[in-house]
Each structure stands twice: as C-alpha cells, then as structure tokens.
Specification:
Length: 353
C-alpha cells in the first residue's frame, strides 16, 4: 500500500470551496483503491493568515512543505485587502521558485457537454508547457527617477539552462502525443529575449527531427487558440506568454474554471505543486457556485504525477460524464452548485472504478 503525504493549501476565495471538493474526489479514489491512500495535512496560509501575522506563510514554510510528496493548492489573492504582488510573491511564486518547479503543464481540451464560446469546438487537445521560474516574472528592476521623469524598469531574465530545459520537456512530451511543438515567440518586438528563445528552440529541435515544429508570434497564436485550436498539440511558452495563453485555453473550454495545472519539479528533489489555472475569484466566492472541475482535474494531474494514470483517466471520464449529463456550474451554462457537481462526479467515479 502506498501512502502519499499531501500538503493542502486552500488559500483564498473559492480556493476554500474547490479544494475540499477535489479532496472529496480523492477520498473516493482512495476508498476504491486500497493500495493508494492519502495523508492530507492542511495549512491555513494565505491572505487571512497575512492579515493576522504579516506573512503569507511562516518563514519556515518551505521547510515544512519539503517533506511532502506534493502540494495541493487552491488559489491565492484577496486584492481588496492585500496587494496582489505581496500575496502572490509571498506564497505561490515563492513555492514555485523555492521548489524549482520550473515546468508548468497546462492542458486544454474539448469536453462533451461544454458551453464553449467557439462555434465549432470539437476536437482540440492542447498542452501548454510554460516556463515557470524566470522570464518576464522577475524581481529585477525598480523605480528610477521620480516625478515627471519617473521611470520603472522590469527586467526579464532568460537563462539558457531553463530555456533549454522547458523546450526539451515540450519535445519529449510531444513524442508521447501528436508529435508537434509550437513555440510562442515575439522576436519581432522583443529584441533580446525572444531572438534568444528562437535560437534555443531551433537548436533543441535539431535533436528531435521527427517532431514537427512551428514558431508563431504570441499575438497571432493567441488569436489562433480561438480560431483553430485543433491545430495545436504541445505549445511551449515563456512564463508570461504561457500565463496568458492558458487563460485562453480555459476560456475555449467554456470557462477558466475548467483549467488545471501542474508545477513540476523535474529533478524530484522537491515536491511538485498542483493548482488550477484560475484565481480566487472574489466575485463569486462564498456562493457555492464556483466550478470545481479545474481543481478536480488538477487532482487528476497529481495522480498522473504519482504514476497512477489509469486512475487519473477515470477521474477525467467522470468529469466528462457529468458535464455531458448537464450537471454544470453557471460559468459553463448550468445551474448546479459546486457541491452538486462534486457529488455527481464522486457518484460517477464510484460506478467507473
Ligand atoms: P480569477 O481567475 O480569480 O477570476 C477571473 C474570472 O473568472 C472571474 O469572473 C471569476 O468569477 C471567474 N472564475 C475563476 N475561476 C472560476 C471557477 N472555478 N468557477 C467559475 N468562475 C470562475 O482571476 P482574477 O479576478 O484576475 O484574480 C482574482 C485574484 O486571484 C487576484 O488576487 C489574482 O492575483 C489571484 N490569482 C491567483 C491565482 C493563483 O493562485 N494561482 C491565479 C490567478 C489569479
Ligand atoms: C497563474 C496566475 C499567477 C501567474 C499569478 C497569480 C501570479 O495567474 O497561475 O496563472 O501569473 O503565474
Ligand atoms: Mn494566470
């Protein structure tokens, strides 16, 4: 019997609703599979914690999390009360960086029964491999000069090591899928970072000559996610481009409330972290109407990470069955609550496993 130690951080807003929903689903998975058990430890870190203590998590937070097999996070952010750069850099980004979770996997695919805004949404199945630790997300820079001549500098940092590593990861993933990698670039506007990005992409692609490659400027690529998403398999993107593309990936699935993500520490030295693409959605928090599917699909990605792909597929199948039946939250055109969708997914899973 395997017991996985999971650190659970519900965080803020709807994180506190969708995380318990996904844990319910994982409980069903373990009830039906005695050889996989979970030991969940919850941490009350986030904006409430900050307002009480002045910190988003304790100083030794990373040390505490280090012994776990994975971190399962909801969302962070309470923008009315805590500035976003403080809440996010104090928790989410600190964990991504501290645990060298350099790869962010973000799938988007069509589900039957979804209320996609696309006219003809059939058949897209994309994974965005986002660089997760550097690039445009950098604390290098600052305000120089003040007054009328005020200037702010925000540096973007691209290392060869991480750029090459995210690209290799994307190519290796494409080998197991439909053998195509698209690189999100912007080398027509950004004169240092993106020509470098293109250069590394071309170099890495030489080791994978059996994989089809395309490089598309991020603006055009964003439009193509809407007009012909079925033409993409694996997309490799820098931190910011990947962030923006994956909200579009969520939107074409019907809602960003659908979209899952995995922050992977490739060396295995530190735990990986699983959290959906969406944020804390303060506009709908506390109303039992948040879509729990992004968080539940995120739990599926954690099962995959533990080598339990078959169980993960069952979870995905249960999600699809439930959307097809029409039990959906309002963001994807239904009138079910978070709890109803979750219970329906659990019931469905019980019949599948
Ligand atoms: P958001 O993703 O929280 O919400 C954007 C819109 O999508 C809102 O209308 C919201 O109601 C809707 N939405 C999001 N998730 C949903 C779900 N599961 N079901 C139904 N509808 C859903 O983005 P935002 O408004 O830009 O950010 C709110 C806060 O969350 C900010 O503090 C932001 O910094 C933070 N944030 C955190 C994360 C994270 O922790 N990973 C990610 C994104 C944003
Ligand atoms: C995400 C979020 C974060 C990001 C923010 C909240 C810092 O938007 O996980 O997509 O940009 O990485
Ligand atoms: Mn985002």
């Amino acid at each position: 019997m395997e017991k996985k130690k999971i650190a659970v951080i519900p965080g803020d807003g709807i994180g506190k609703e969708v995380v318990p929903a996904a844990l319910k689903v994982l409980e069903v998975v373990s009830q039906l599979n005695e050889d996989l058990q979970f030991d969940f430890t919850e941490f009350p870190w986030g904006s409430e914690f900050y307002l009480k203590t002045g910190e988003m998590m304790p100083k030794d937070g990373l040390e505490t999390l280090r012994d776990f097999d994975a971190v399962f996070l909801g969302a962070v952010g309470d923008p009315e009360r805590v500035p976003d750069h403080i809440s996010l850099w104090g928790l989410l980004i600190q964990i991504r960086r501290g645990f060298q979770q350099t790869i962010n996997l973000r799938p988007a695919r069509y589900f039957q029964g979804l209320d996609s805004p696309l006219k003809n949404p059939n058949g897209f199945d994309i994974v965005v491999v986002r660089e997760n630790s550097e690039g445009e997300y950098s604390d290098s820079g600052g305000r120089i000069h003040h007054g009328e001549d005020e200037i702010v500098i925000q540096n973007a940092i691209f290392t060869r090591k991480r750029t090459e590593s995210v690209m290799r990861y994307a190519f290796q993933l494409a080998e197991k899928r439909r053998k195509s990698v698209t690189s999100a670039t912007k080398s027509n506007g950004l004169v240092h970072s993106m020509p470098f990005w293109d250069e590394v992409f071309a170099e890495v692609s030489e080791d994978f000559t059996h994989i089809n490659t395309k490089k598309i400027h991020i603006d055009a690529l964003a439009a193509m996610f809407v007009t012909n998403p079925e033409s993409f398999d694996v997309v490799v993107a820098s931190n910011l481009f990947g962030d923006i593309l994956t909200d579009i990936g969520g939107a074409i699935m019907g809602s960003i409330g659908m979209a899952p993500s995995a922050n992977i520490n490739v060396t295995g030295e530190y735990p990986s972290m699983f959290e959906p693409v969406h944020g804390s959605a303060p506009d709908i928090a506390g109303k039992n109407r948040a879509n729990p599917i992004g968080q539940i699909w995120t739990a599926k990605m954690m099962l995959d990470h533990f080598g339990k792909q078959a169980l993960g597929e069952e979870v995905l199948q249960a999600i699809e069955n439930v959307t097809k039946q029409g039990c959906k939250t309002p963001d994807i055109g239904g009138s079910c609550s978070t709890t109803e969708v979750t219970d329906e997914i659990c019931r469905n899973l019980q019949n599948l496993i």
